[in-house]
Automatic annotation (TrEMBL):
Transmembrane intervals: 25-50, 94-112, 124-144, 194-211
Ranges for domain Cation efflux protein transmembrane: 28-219
Position of the signal peptide: none
Subcellular location as annotated: Cell membrane
Molecular function in Gene Ontology: cadmium ion transmembrane transporter activity; ferrous iron transmembrane transporter activity; zinc efflux antiporter activity
Location of the region described as Disordered in the Swiss-Prot/TrEMBL record: 295-317
Pfam family, one: ZT_dimer
Annotated protein name in UniProt: Cation transporter
InterPro entries, per the entry: Cation_efflux, Cation_efflux_CTD, Cation_efflux_CTD_sf, Cation_efflux_TM, Cation_efflux_TMD_sf, CDF_Transporter
UniProt organism field: Nonomuraea zeae
GO CC terms: plasma membrane
Membrane topology, record value: Multi-pass membrane protein
Limits of the Cation efflux protein cytoplasmic domain: 224-299
Length: 317
């Protein structure tokens, strides 16, 4: 039976809308983070706090991650063609790699500055302003983190979720700067670079989480619960006797499926095709963020029949 594929116009419109939401999130969060970083930068110059410098650099890096993501969301709107037959959604995963590299660079720079200040401790000026800047950094980053993670999960964007995790870590590292400021106020200037090193460690943890998220997408990993849900949807379709293999993959922030169903071997081609269309229709409407599905129908019977005998030698295990 020839596989049947169907792109829903409604799903296409939804995909465009999710890209638009992603662009809105990036624009708003970029403005918030750049404002936060600008305020902190002024206080860094006035205070000489290396911990606050590390936090400011991280905020700037976090804001700049909006650039590759915005490019990816823009590319993802392009229609598929004969060269890119699945469209340009993978650009989002490539942007995720850029985000991981930016996080890595911010960790290295923050660590370098902290070690340099450990070797050459200096007094911190305007401790009260450093504490205020740390609080501003926390509030700005936590708001951005919640916004990015919420929308990223709603539209299925791993890159946007990774970016949100990055912002959340920035928020907690901003609070850590308060410890450095407190230590300096108590006469322990070494507290500032020590907190700078702790911030570097925190950045490394979020780097690990973001790298894992992007790695899963690049390897076509999906939540097993989505596979279970797809199998249950297919099993409820009238005419489907059994459900064969179910493969799901993310392309950008939309899901694509390739599934096999078994129908009565005495069923006509027209009827089998109708079952495949209904199975596809159910999947597209009932499985969240699924944009397209390819359904292959196999005959269930007669007993001991092997309808794929000629393909056995070509299938890898």
């Amino acid at each position: 039976m020839t596989p049947h594929s169907h792109d829903s116009a409604t799903k296409t419109d939804t995909a465009l809308e999710t890209s638009s939401r992603g662009m809105r999130v990036l624009g708003i969060s970029f403005a918030v983070l750049m404002f936060t970083a600008a305020v902190q930068a002024v206080i860094v110059v006035a205070s000489g706090s290396v911990a606050l410098l590390g936090d400011t650099l991280h905020n700037v890096a976090d804001a700049l991650t909006a650039v590759p993501l915005a490019i990816a969301f823009s590319l993802g709107r392009r229609a598929a063609n004969r060269r890119f037959t699945y469209g340009y959604g993978r650009a989002e995963d490539l942007a995720g790699i850029v985000i991981v590299l930016i996080i890595t660079a911010s960790a290295a720079l923050a660590g370098y500055e902290a070690v340099k200040r450990l070797l050459d401790p200096q007094d911190i000026r305007a401790v009260g302003w450093v504490a205020a800047a740390a609080l501003i950094g926390f509030l700005g980053n936590e708001w951005v983190a919640r916004y990015r993670i919420k929308v990223g999960r709603e539209i299925g964007s791993a890159a946007l979720v990774a970016d949100g995790l990055h912002a959340r870590t920035d928020g907690f590292t901003s609070l850590a700067v308060l410890l450095g400021a407190g230590g300096a106020a108590l006469g322990f200037p070494i507290a500032d670079p020590v907190v700078g090193l702790l911030i570097t460690v925190a950045i490394c943890f979020v780097l690990r989480d973001a790298a894992r998220e992007i790695y899963h997408r690049l390897m076509d990993a999906v939540d097993p619960a989505l596979v279970d849900a797809a199998e249950q949807i297919l099993a409820r379709v009238e005419g489907v006797r059994r459900v064969g293999s179910v493969r799901l993959r993310w392309i950008g922030h939309t899901l694509h499926a390739e599934v096999e169903i078994l129908v009565d071997h005495d069923m006509s081609v027209v009827d089998a095709h109708a079952v495949a269309v209904e199975a596809e229709h159910r999947l597209i409407h009932d499985l969240a963020r699924l944009r397209a599905a390819t359904v292959h129908t196999d005959p269930d019977g007669p007993p001991n029949a092997d309808h794929h005998a000629s393909l056995t030698a070509h299938r890898t295990r």
